[in-house]
Amino acid sequence: MASHPVLDLAVIGGGASGFFTALQYAELAPGKSVAIFEKGSHFLQKVRISGGGRCNVTHACFDPGEMSKNYPRGSRELRAAFHRWQPSDTVEWFRHQGVELKTEPDGRMFPVTDRSETVIDCFLERARKSGITLYQNRPLTGITLLDDGTFSLQFENLETPVVARTVCIATGSLKGSSLLQHLKALEQTLQPLVPSLFAFNVSDRRISDLAGVSHPHVSIRREGTSTARQGPLLITHRGFSGPAVLRLSAWEARELAETNHHFPFIIDWLPEMKPDAIQAQFDDNRRTHGAKLVRNSPIPPLPRRLWERIVACSGIEDQTTWGQLPKAAAKNLLDGLKSARFEAQGKTTNKDEFVTCGGIERKTIDFRTMQSRNVPGLYFVGECIDIDGITGGFNFQAAWTTAHIAATDIATR
Ligand SMILES: Cc1cc2nc3c(=O)[nH]c(=O)nc-3n(C[C@H](O)[C@H](O)[C@H](O)COP(=O)(O)OP(=O)(O)OC[C@H]3O[C@@H](n4cnc5c(N)ncnc54)[C@H](O)[C@@H]3O)c2cc1C
């Protein structure tokens, strides 16, 4: 088989970060040869399923310092990187391509079409116009640095290796990747790969049959720690999900992995009320609504069904009125509201968004260029790096930002 011409840039992985790198490079270095090699039979598969099929492209936070606080890993590096490419640049870039984004009340940004296909169509169309060569069913199986500083790339389904001057690894999560041994051979060290952004499996009578009940604001922490995560919570068929739970899963991804996702945690159902304030409310109910049933007086914003269950699980009979409530039972109720202890028995991956914590060690990458500190010409972008964000469009923004920085540097080589 004849050998291929030497490529200026070989992008490994046809996902969000790979496409953005190739598109930006093609814009900045017209006339150079660039190809994307995708393992699967479809490009941009994660973009397709992202954000429940709507693609949460980025987050409406335009201050690099504030933005960087949403990344349990990579915050420091991204803070500087966002000065180079941040959500406002993403919004502007998409607008320039004819894709308008809209902001939801919680800050998440989606295409106005509410369809992830809008992003995919935009990328594929731009790639075609820019002359980027796209290969499907081409898993990279080996990468060797040649004496002249170029790379020899071996692919499944391709007899002759491809030679490239620059290689950008955009493979997403490296969990189970056959590339690991090759990256190790190139002296790229790795932080252990563990899941982030998952729901907690909990079997407990306080929440049985309450699937679908949501609470607008709880505080949740791992037992034995003092840092709590706040936000809405959703009771599911398997346990707990929702932003507060996903935040805890992200910020403590490593610690939770060490427990094999079996760990005790504490929920404060009324984080905006101090215990004294709740006690004062109980006393007031006793004085002014003595004949009212305890289970009929939920404290906002607790959903009624959840309140009824917490009351019952505190040992308070259905027919107990505030006037009849014994002191000990009131104390149980207060504890059940402020420090409800649950046991997680495993995790469920959230269907809207999950990512891998860990990956190529950040210190082995120069974040001014996204180039390996060990191997000139080798770049890393997106989720393969030990960077991950909480839910809300932060993971895609990290992909766009790292891709932009890599493309800019590769274009000047
Ligand atoms: C269900 C779900 C929903 C999500 N929703 C959102 C959201 O709305 N907003 C958000 O910000 N984030 C979301 N995320 C996270 C986001 O999708 C990822 O952070 C993002 O896709 C990372 O981009 P990437 O290009 O680094 O990796 P990927 O998008 O995973 O792309 C990597 C590509 O490389 C290919 N590849 C892997 N190995 C090889 C190989 N050896 N050779 C060739 N190709 C290879 C893969 O097949 C894949 O196509 C979601 C994740 C999931 C799972």
Mind telling me the CATH class of the largest domain? Alpha Beta
> The CATH topology of the largest domain is what?
FAD/NAD(P)-binding domain
Q: Count the E strands.
A: 21
The total of helices stands at 13
Which class do the helix and strand fractions yield? Answer: alpha+beta
CATH superfamily of the largest domain: FAD/NAD(P)-binding domain
What is Rg?
A: 25 Å
Ligands, deduplicated = flavin-adenine dinucleotide
Shape: elongated
The residue-averaged pLDDT reads 96
Q: How far is the N terminus from the C terminus? A: 30 Å
- Tally of structural domains: 2
Percent strand:
15-25%
State the CATH architecture of the largest domain. Answer: 3-Layer(bba) Sandwich
Helical percent range? 25-40%
* Oligomer state of the chains in this structure: single chain
Characterize the main sheet: 7 strands, mixed
**Low-confidence regions:** none
Feature tags:
413 residues; 13 helices; alpha+beta
Write up what this structure looks like.
The protein is 33% helix and 24% strand. β12 and β13 form a beta hairpin. The protein has helices at 16-28, 45-53, 64-68, 75-82, 87-96, 116-130, 180-185, 243-251, 253-258, 275-288, 304-313, 327-338, 394-411; strands spanning 7-12, 34-37, 58-59, 101-103, 108-111, 133-135, 140-145, 151-155, 162-169, 190-196, 198-201, 214-222, 229-235, 239-241, 262-268, 340-345, 347-349, 355-360, 365-366, 371-372, 378-380. With 413 residues, it is α+β, with helices and mostly antiparallel strands. The strands form five sheets. Strands 1, 2, 6, 7, 8, 9 and 21 form a seven-stranded mixed sheet that branches. It has two domains: 7-194 and 355-411, 3-Layer(bba) Sandwich (FAD/NAD(P)-binding domain); 198-349, no CATH class. The protein is elongated and about 85 Å long. The two termini are 30 Å apart. It contains 13 helices and 21 strands. Bound molecules: flavin-adenine dinucleotide (FAD). Residues 12-18, 37-40, 45-46, 49-51, 55-56, 139-140, 170-172, 177, 179, 352-355, 382-383, 393-396, 399 line the site of flavin-adenine dinucleotide.
